[in-house]
């Protein structure tokens, strides 16, 4: 059973794993080429591989892809997507650092 992106967003049901890049693409709405490209540039970790060399994706990897589709929809650059992805991977630990950094940037912008 293949879950389409719209259906998954409604039910919030991300499978524990999918057994091919095609299934990951169908689930997330990203193309297979985009998934490969995101892996190549470090936006996504490389997929796990089965003994036959085929890709498999975990629930965590699929959640990362869904997150990237949402970032992509905002129109931000790949560089900015990498920054947000990095912050997301850090979790709540990075919040104090980011607040400080944002305040510093705002003060610098006001001076200019």
UniProtKB/TrEMBL annotation:
SUPFAM superfamilies per the UniProt record, alphabetical: Putative DNA-binding domain (SSF46955)
GO molecular function: DNA binding
Keywords from the UniProt entry: DNA-binding, Plasmid
Organism domain of life: Bacteria
Domain HTH merR-type as annotated: residue spans: 20-87
Keyword DNA-binding among record annotations: yes
Sequence ranges of Basic and acidic residues compositional bias: 103-112
Protein name: MerR family DNA-binding transcriptional regulator
Lineage: Bacteria, Bacillati, Bacillota, Bacilli, Bacillales
Ranges of compositional bias, category Polar residues: 87-102
Gene3D superfamilies, per database record: 1.10.1660.10
Region called Disordered, residue ranges: 87-112
Species of the source: Alicyclobacillus dauci
């Amino acid at each position: 059973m293949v879950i389409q992106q719209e259906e998954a967003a409604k039910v919030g049901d991300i499978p524990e794993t999918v057994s091919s890049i095609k299934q990951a693409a169908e689930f997330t709405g990203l193309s297979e080429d985009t998934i490969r490209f995101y892996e190549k540039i470090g936006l996504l970790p490389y997929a796990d591989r089965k003994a036959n060399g085929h890709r498999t994706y975990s629930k965590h990897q699929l959640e990362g892809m869904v997150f990237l589709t949402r970032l992509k929809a905002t129109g931000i650059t790949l560089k900015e997507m990498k920054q947000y992805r990095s912050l997301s991977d850090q979790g709540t630990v990075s919040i104090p650092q980011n607040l400080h950094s944002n305040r510093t940037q705002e003060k610098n912008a006001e001076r200019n």
